[in-house]
Amino acid sequence: MGGRDESFRGLATPTDLTTHRKTPSQEGLPLEHIAGDQYIHEDLLGLTFQISPHAFFQVNTPAAEVLYTVIQDWAQLDMESTVLDVCCGTGTIGLALARKVKRVVGIELCQEAVEDARVNANNNELSNVEFHCGRAEDLVPALVSKLASQQLVAILDPPRAGLHSKVILAIRRAENLKRLLYVSCNPRAAMGNFVDLCRAPSNRVKGTPFRPVKAVAVDLFPQTPHCEMLILFERVEHPNGTETLEPKDPPAQHLSGPQDDTQQESESSPSS
């Protein structure tokens, strides 16, 4: 048994399990580091990520690679692009795109995740990235104003409930932001965000609207009814987007009145 024990030396072993009827907030979870590594390390798209206990990271790495690859394809980035990565977690999406763009600006509420993101940028030798800790509704308005001269593309990957309306309204006002990719694990809960992105300008909602261009579901949670939905929004090209939102009559050649129908029937009927 001695040799067998040696082969398992260093492996993590669960020693205690506590269950709760209701999941507490992450900030309220007490943590005590007893032994071994303080972090999990995961490889994704050729990069290595440090993950703290409270930091978010997709649980299905192969499927996350599929999702992030589609984001990269749809974003149409170049070396003049600046990526605004909202709710960036440990920096996975932004860092995966960093070598293809001019700059990445990440925003994340969890302090541990922001610290991980900065470590991950350094460990992967990426210097064109920066990460800010705070609420998206507090940081995004000032950041998009600061980035007004940049060729801006936004990646939004919020929690289940979606983003605060202040974030969406700030993005609507940022006319230099032409393309937006929204990752949602609960599209029904985020529907208010989608509507505000696309609604006609009003006293409350300023700026040219976006329109949904395409969407795809990625199964990050096999054997469950859940998935991640990726939606690409593009800014409406017209200076006043209201005209594209108004219903238009179909072309005249597609219309047929009662007289036309009668005439067609008489022409097609055999003569007596």
UniProtKB/TrEMBL annotation:
One MF annotation (Gene Ontology) recorded for this entry: tRNA (uracil(54)-C5)-methyltransferase activity, S-adenosyl methionine-dependent
GO annotation terms (biological process): methylation; RNA processing
Disordered: annotated segments: 1-27, 239-272
Group of enzyme by EC: transferase
Basic and acidic residues biased stretches: 239-251
Polar residues: compositionally biased ranges: 259-272
EC number: 2.1.1.35
Coiled-coil parts of chain: none
Active-site positions on this chain: C185 (nucleophile)
Reactions the enzyme catalyzes: uridine(54) in tRNA + S-adenosyl-L-methionine = 5-methyluridine(54) in tRNA + S-adenosyl-L-homocysteine + H(+)
InterPro entries in UniProt: SAM-dependent_MTases_sf (IPR029063), TRM2_met (IPR045850), U5_MeTrfase_fam (IPR010280)
Entry-linked SUPFAM superfamilies: S-adenosyl-L-methionine-dependent methyltransferases
Residues the record lists as binding S-adenosyl-L-methionine: Q58, E108, D157
Keyword list, A-Z: Methyltransferase, S-adenosyl-L-methionine, Transferase
Domain of life: Eukaryota
Family: Belongs to the class I-like SAM-binding methyltransferase superfamily. RNA M5U methyltransferase family.
Name of the molecule in the record: tRNA (uracil(54)-C(5))-methyltransferase
Record organism: Pipistrellus kuhlii
Taxonomic placement: Eukaryota, Metazoa, Chordata, Craniata, Vertebrata
